[in-house]
Specification:
Blueprint: E1 14-19, H1 30-46, E2 50-56, E3 60-66, H2 72-92, E4 106-109, H3 114-124, H4 126-129, H5 143-149, H6 152-155, H7 169-174, H8 179-191
Antiparallel strand pairs: 1-3, 1-4, 2-3
Helix pairs in contact: 1-2
């Protein structure tokens, strides 16, 4: 089967997701989550990658990335996936035990407007929708926690947004999304479609 070409242009935000092979749990404890956050900081520094939002769940993760240059997204994510798999297998003593992820990451370009805030909210509310946390900011392994409770050093992982967060961010992030909005986003993820962008972006490939 021929793999679809991907959009990988600079100065465009992307919603990125990957899941564990067989949807098995790959983040078991604080050390597992912290190791992945360490790698996020590495792509921030090495590839000058702006991390606008993220959440790490037991068997998958979501990132909202804002690369500066063409090709940066694929380089950073290839390094992230390879490095995480290697470090995970070394930590768990499972080298040679098979693939960590179910396949290549999925990435979806987003408009730099209200659509970006919709995706950010979708990402940060994941633990609450999954009933893993009473509030988004109570889940330590995501950007909602860093924004609301993090030290200045912790917040430095997050890049500057191209749009303003709502002034009442804590209230906004805790208000559930409208069902129609949520369904549109899920459709984007399930079908591999750009969210809130003109159809012409589908023709821009790496």
């Amino acid at each position: 089967m021929v793999r679809p070409l991907r959009i990988d242009i600079g100065d465009v935000p992307y919603h990125v997701i990957n899941r564990a092979n067989g949807r098995h749990t790959i983040f078991h404890n604080a050390g597992d989550y912290q190791d992945f956050e360490y790698l996020l900081n590495e792509i921030r520094e090495t590839y000058d990658m702006r991390i606008l939002a993220y959440v790490i769940m037991p068997n998958h993760w979501h990132l909202l990335l804002y690369p500066k240059n063409d090709g940066d997204l694929s380089k950073a994510l290839q390094w992230l996936g390879t490095s995480h798999a290697r470090r995970h297998h070394t930590r768990k003593g499972t080298i040679g035990g098979g693939h960590l992820y179910q396949g290549r990451y999925k990435s979806f370009p987003i408009e730099k407007d209200s659509h970006l805030l919709t995706v950010l909210k979708y990402i940060e509310r994941n633990p609450t929708r999954a009933r893993l946390s009473p509030t988004p900011e109570a889940w330590k392994w995501g950007s909602a926690f860093r924004r609301s409770c993090g030290t200045p050093q912790a917040k430095s992982l997050l890049g500057e947004l191209p749009v303003n967060l709502p002034r009442n961010y804590r209230q906004w992030i805790n208000d559930p999304e409208p069902s129609e909005e949520l369904e549109k986003l899920r459709h984007s993820v399930n079908k591999g479609l750009a969210y809130g962008m003109a159809d012409t972006t589908k023709n821009i490939v790496q």
